[in-house]
Specification:
Radius of gyration: 21 Å
Low-confidence stretches: none
CATH topology: Hydantoin permease
Order of helices and strands: HHHHHHHHHHHHHHHHHHHH
Structural class: mainly alpha
CATH class: Mainly Alpha
CATH superfamily: Hydantoin permease
Number of helices: 20
CATH architecture: Orthogonal Bundle
Largest sheet: none
């Protein structure tokens, strides 16, 4: 059983930790996947279910990862062994594999956002579909994928304080400011009201649809970066007196706020320009084809708004990618005794190499997403809820440190033992069916 190193890094401030954790949660899923799923699943019907499931599933698992990480002061493999014995190292290994595989293809999509941010400066062309086909695969996609991975590696080389925390403190406020600015601009467009009507109207029949429920649960889990050890690893760097329940609520609220405001920006834009019928064509199509078409229709304003939007996407993708790479780097440091420079360069390069097939073929990218994003994450979260609910000794006592005034620990333990496993079993079943 590994022990926490005495010289382990710590966050320089509570604000730095919170912004880094929010950055891990906020990513392409908030501005890409959330809007698409909302459009596909009845607007506010999905929104309401998503909020409920963030509270009932996302928040309990988020707090569970925070508690395990802070208490053990180790990365996933060592942390789970610390509380459950060596047999639980396998679950930590699954977290590690999930994060590594997700980063490999996530950085391909993030590379597209880098390319699109630069393209937006000069304005998108009239055929955004043809442009996406041109840049999404092949040597160009490989090059931008490697560039994004190089940027991620450079930040992780700086460590927790001089790398992750410093970047998060700058990028996260900028991201939220950009999204709010675009949402305010979108509100001024003629026809924006139709976008709000679609986004915020509630269809009760959709709320009772089993598929909508499963989609909302999956997004609540995916959006908070759960089941891959990122939040757990970040929590291993916090001080013992941090109020983890409060931090969990802040992280979940900020994550939802970015997704919600992104919807307030995206839907009015699309409806104002008559492109609402195209938003549900595909997850990638909504982001990389439909929106660039909208920015093209807007002329010079589209160049400004499009550039800002894709810059915000780059920021979100980068802060999420940092957390994913930190999981594997921290594990190598904890379990193998590697130094940070060697672990970062070696594992970052290996992850970059693993992502090359996804950059060459969209079918490979989709398969990696189904395996890691739909199966590994959900199964890992399911097993984590079982671990905290039934195996870990006194998780409530661990969570209570620094949070003596919190009164909902009993509800948290009950949710982790009952609601979370039940909902994640449903999501896992749906994911397996989708693979078939």
């Amino acid at each position: 059983m590994a022990d926490a190193p005495e010289s382990r890094e710590q966050w320089g401030s509570r604000t730095g930790f919170i912004l880094a954790a929010v950055g891990s949660a906020v990513g392409l899923g908030n501005m890409w996947r959330f809007s698409y799923l909302t459009a596909e699943n009845g607007g506010a019907a999905f929104l309401v279910l998503y909020l409920v499931l963030v509270a009932a599933v996302g928040l309990p698992v988020l707090l569970a990862e925070l508690v395990i990480g802070r208490g053990s002061r180790l990365s996933p493999i060592g942390a789970l062994a610390h509380y459950g014995g060596s047999r639980w190292r396998l679950l930590g290994g699954l977290f590690l594999a999930s994060g590594f595989l997700i980063l490999a293809y996530y950085s391909v999509i993030a590379g597209w956002t880098l390319r699109y941010a630069l393209t937006a400066l000069g304005g998108f062309g009239p055929d955004s579909g043809a442009y996406f086909e041109q840049v999404s695969t092949g040597a160009t996609a490989v090059g931008w994928h490697l560039a994004f991975m190089a940027l991620t590696i450079a930040i992780i080389l700086g460590g927790v304080n001089r790398g992750i925390e410093r970047v998060s403190i700058v990028l996260m406020p900028l991201l939220f400011a950009i999204i709010c600015g675009i949402a305010i601009y979108a509100a001024t467009l003629p026809g924006a009201d139709a976008g709000y009507d679609f986004y915020l109207s509630i269809d009760l029949a959709q709320m009772l649809d089993f598929k909508v429920l499963a989609a909302a649960a999956s997004q609540a889990f995916f959006s908070l970066s759960l089941g891959m050890g990122a939040i757990l690893t970040y929590a291993s760097y916090v001080r013992e007196d941090e109020n983890l329940p409060n931090e969990a609520v802040i992280i979940a609220t900020a994550d939802f706020a970015v997704a919600f405001v992104a919807g307030l920006a995206v839907f009015p834009l699309l409806f104002a320009l008559g492109l609402e019928s195209k938003v549900g064509e595909s997850t990638l199509g909504a982001l990389f084809i439909t929106l660039p078409s909208a920015f093209h229709e807007m002329g010079f304003a589209g160049q400004v708004v499009g550039t800002l939007f894709f810059v915000a996407l780059v920021f979100g993708a980068l802060t999420s990618a940092m957390s994913l790479l930190e999981v594997v780097v921290a594990t190598a440091i904890d379990q193998l005794g590697w130094g940070r420079p060697f672990a970062t360069m070696a594992l970052g390069s290996l992850c970059a190499l693993l992502g090359v097939p996804a950059a060459l073929d969209l079918d490979v990218l989709g398969l990696m997403d189904q395996i890691a994003g739909s199966l590994f994450l959900v199964f890992g979260g399911l097993m984590l809820s079982i671990f905290v609910g039934f195996v870990m000794p006194d998780p409530v006592g661990e969570a209570r440190q620094g949070a003596e005034g919190v009164r909902w620990f009993g509800a948290w333990r009950l949710l982790v033992r009952t609601v979370v496993p039940a909902v994640l079993l449903v999501v896992l079943w749906q994911s397996i069916r989708a693979l078939g």
